[in-house]
Structures are given as structure tokens and as C-alpha cells.
Design a protein that fits this description.
Radius of gyration: 17 Å
Shape: globular
Mean pLDDT: 93
Order of helices and strands: EEEHEHEHEEHEEEEEHHEEH
Number of helices: 7
Distance between the termini: 31 Å
Number of strands: 14
């Protein structure tokens, strides 16, 4: 399967509290970097790899996102809206709500506030060559939370460096890497997942890693979480 056959889901429902005061009157996904909103940047970025079908979830100032997409003719791609206006469901719950909008083959998921030049073709090729339940894009960069992997790139655990909390399924890990906010997920995830309602997708992954193959795809691409104002300033230098 090639990248251009994938559906991509962009998480755009978050409150964006770290980006106040901008998010007091607009959604985080419309935060501009060099005059271009994050959501537009990521649609165009993924479109550059041939992806033409998108699902975007909305909650905070949902109408502003739908209006923005309509005004720009969806940037020439198909975009389906997963409406979480009534309740913000976090990443896991948001994914479950969007299930019927996603294709019945593997799909890509990306956070709207991530900017990167990661080669999506390589990530997708890795996923289909290894056929895990989930492939997580990861890199060796500074982060308060790290995912733990063994020599075979299998997810073994998670560690929070701020309070030294950890969840470990296999002590055979030798790599601590930061999640890049981009993942490729097999549709089998929906049958294997045991959580419901409002939950983080990572919570499900940390449970499923005990019985399923969840792999890390390590990369050295440029990547920035545009979650707070100082990151936004850096983003303007890194992404023109």
C-alpha cells in the first residue's frame, strides 16, 4: 500500500491552553506560523506525499475550523469532519468516534500542532513491511516523556522524566525515544482496544504493547511541537 492510498486523520480538537491568549478566540489548529495556519501546513504537507483523503476532528471553536476549510475549498482534498463539539474525547476517544469515517485499511494519524519534514513514504513503507498493529514515529530528542524500545524496535514501556513514573511491559529495552505525534494504525486496533469514552491513545498503546506488536520508526527529521509561544517563535525560523 502506498502513501497516496492512505486516509490521514489530523487531531484538531484540543483546547490549546499553552497557546493562550491566541486560543481564547480561535482553535489551536489555526495558529499561524509565518502567516499560514498549522492545519493548512499539515494538510499541504501530507498532500505532498499524495494523501488526498482526510478526517479532521473538531471541538474548540469548531465552526472556525469548518469555515476555514470551506473558504479554502478544503485545499483540493477530501476532508471529513468528526464533530466532538459536545465533548472533547482526547486522542483515543477521538479516534474511536471517527472510526466510521476512516478506511478499513491502515491509516495515518497526526497532531495538528506538530510541524515536521519527516518522509511519510518511509514511515508508511516501514509499517507495511513489518505489519505491526501500530507504527510510532519517534526520534532521539529532548522530551519530558520517553517511549522505551528494544533492539527490534518493539514498544516496551513509557517513562515520565518529570516524576520518574514509568510503565514497563518488557525490561529488555535499550532505547528511550520521544514520540513525534505521527503514527500509522492498523484497523485491527479497533478490535484490540479495550478503552472507551474519553482517553489518551497512548494509554491504549501501553496496554496493547503487552500482547501486540507496536513498533517505533526512528527518524532524524526536523520536528517541532508548536504547543507554546516560544516554540512558535522557533517554528517561524525552522518552517518558512
Amino acid at each position: 500500500m502506498k502513501s497516496n492510498q492512505l486516509t490521514a486523520m489530523i487531531f484538531a480538537a484540543g483546547l490549546g491552553t499553552r497557546l493562550k491568549p491566541f486560543t481564547l478566540s480561535a482553535p489551536k489548529a489555526l495558529f499561524p506560523v509565518n502567516g499560514k495556519p498549522l492545519l493548512q501546513r499539515n494538510i499541504e504537507y501530507l498532500k505532498g506525499f499524495g494523501i488526498s483523503r482526510f478526517v479532521v476532528n473538531v471541538h474548540h471553536f469548531a465552526d472556525k475550523i469548518t469555515e476555514f476549510l470551506e473558504q479554502n475549498n478544503n485545499f483540493g482534498v477530501e476532508i471529513l469532519i468528526s464533530d466532538e463539539t459536545n465533548e472533547l474525547l482526547e486522542t483515543g476517544g477521538g479516534l474511536l468516534k471517527a472510526k466510521d469515517l476512516l478506511s478499513n485499511s491502515s491509516f495515518l494519524v497526526m497532531n495538528s500542532d506538530i510541524l515536521t519534514d519527516l518522509d511519510i513514504h518511509k514511515l508508511v513503507d516501514f509499517h507495511f513491511e513489518n505489519n505491526p498493529l501500530v507504527t510510532l514515529a519517534v526520534s532521539d530528542r529532548e522530551s519530558t516523556r520517553k517511549l522505551l524500545f528494544n533492539q527490534e524496535n518493539q514498544l516496551c514501556g513509557w517513562k515520565d522524566l518529570r516524576n520518574n513514573q514509568s510503565i514497563i511491559a518488557n525490561s529488555d529495552f535499550n532505547k528511550e525515544l520521544a514520540f513525534s505525534g505521527i503514527h500509522v494504525i492498523s484497523p485491527d486496533f479497533f478490535d484490540k482496544n479495550t478503552f472507551e469514552g474519553k482517553f489518551s491513545i497512548m494509554k491504549s498503546y501501553l496496554e496493547l504493547m503487552k500482547s501486540e506488536q507496536i513498533l517505533g520508526f526512528q527518524h532524524s527529521a526536523k520536528l517541532l511541537d508548536v504547543g507554546k509561544p516560544d516554540s512558535a517563535e522557533l517554528a517561524e525560523k525552522m518552517f518558512k
